């Protein structure tokens, strides 16, 4: 039976992925700090295990993951958060919180698991379409996801020689507790079920980048090819009506 490890499986996209992989016969290890939802899933299904650790803490991450002595076919490093800055004012503490989980949470898991990688291991890193363009108030979140995007592309090159595939996952808006906090319009938002399907289908094909919903992600990808001054003017115009 194939094995998948999913971080951030206690809520939102990660929880849906855990349910869907379990339904499809995978052995699932679902991780989080507050594991009550994964614990409940693990009680219903014998192919789900819940693993509690704080991914921002390297020692805690290593301790928890060392308890898993079998290699994973698929590792989805999805745990993350989103915080927006106010009035363009930089708040370094906020940046550290966001980078701590979105970037260092991924790095901590990779450091803890890298010795278990074998040819065929598939690593999926959770990015965001927010990384494509400079969006208002997204300085910390967008920069953290841009770091994940670079990390994914760079690691793909280095790990290819070892037979390890790296995929970047770039969702648009997905309805989860993370986006429930947003106070602005979120065009073409999809459900966690739709997000999970797009992610699982894209990862099944071992895509370098799994991005969705396509109508949204392709528009942003196109805007990102324009000169920076045009991007800036268009983002300003578009977001003026949605904020
Ligand atoms: N929703 C969207 O529109 C959207 C769009 C693009 C990208 N994403 C990305 O998708 C990922 C999942 O987001 P979501 O929307 O599903 O949000 P969510 O419902 O808030 O879930 C976030 C998950 O991350 C886990 N997490 C946060 N901090 C953690 C820590 N220090 N250690 C371990 N786990 C931690 C949370 O678990 P615990 O609190 O139990 O630890 C939770 O399971 C994030 O990386 C997010 O940036 C989301």
From TrEMBL:
Signal peptide: none
UniProt keyword terms in alphabetical order: Oxidoreductase
Name of a matching Pfam family: adh_short
Keyword Oxidoreductase: yes
Classification via SUPFAM superfamilies: NAD(P)-binding Rossmann-fold domains
Membrane spanning stretches: none
Keyword Transport: no
Domain of life: Bacteria
Sequence similarity: Belongs to the short-chain dehydrogenases/reductases (SDR) family.
Name the record gives this protein: SDR family NAD(P)-dependent oxidoreductase
The species this protein was found in: Enterovibrio norvegicus
């Amino acid at each position: 039976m194939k094995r998948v490890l999913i971080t951030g499986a206690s809520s939102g996209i990660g929880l849906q992925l855990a349910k869907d992989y379990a339904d499809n016969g995978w052995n699932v290890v679902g991780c989080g700090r507050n594991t009550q939802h994964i614990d409940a899933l693990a009680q219903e299904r014998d192919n789900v295990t819940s693993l509690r650790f704080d991914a921002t803490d390297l020692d805690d991450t290593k301790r928890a993951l060392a308890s898993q002595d079998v290699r994973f076919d698929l590792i989805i490093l999805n745990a993350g958060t989103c915080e927006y800055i106010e009035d363009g004012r930089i708040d370094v503490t906020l940046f550290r919180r966001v980078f701590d989980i979105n970037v260092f949470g991924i790095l901590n898991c990779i450091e803890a698991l890298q010795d278990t990688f074998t040819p065929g291991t598939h690593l999926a890193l959770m990015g965001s379409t927010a990384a494509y363009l400079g969006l208002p108030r997204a300085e910390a979140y967008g920069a953290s996801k841009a770091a994940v995007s670079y990390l994914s592309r760079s690691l793909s090159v280095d790990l290819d020689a070892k037979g390890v595939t790296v995929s970047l996952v770039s969702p648009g808006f997905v309805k989860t507790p993370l986006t429930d906090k947003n106070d602005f319009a979120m065009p073409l938002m999809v459900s966690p079920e739709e997000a999970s399907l797009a992610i699982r289908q894209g990862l099944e094909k071992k895509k370098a980048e799994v991005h969705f919903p396509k109508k949204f992600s392709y528009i942003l990808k196109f805007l990102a090819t324009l000169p920076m001054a045009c991007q800036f003017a268009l983002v300003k115009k578009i977001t003026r009506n949605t904020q």
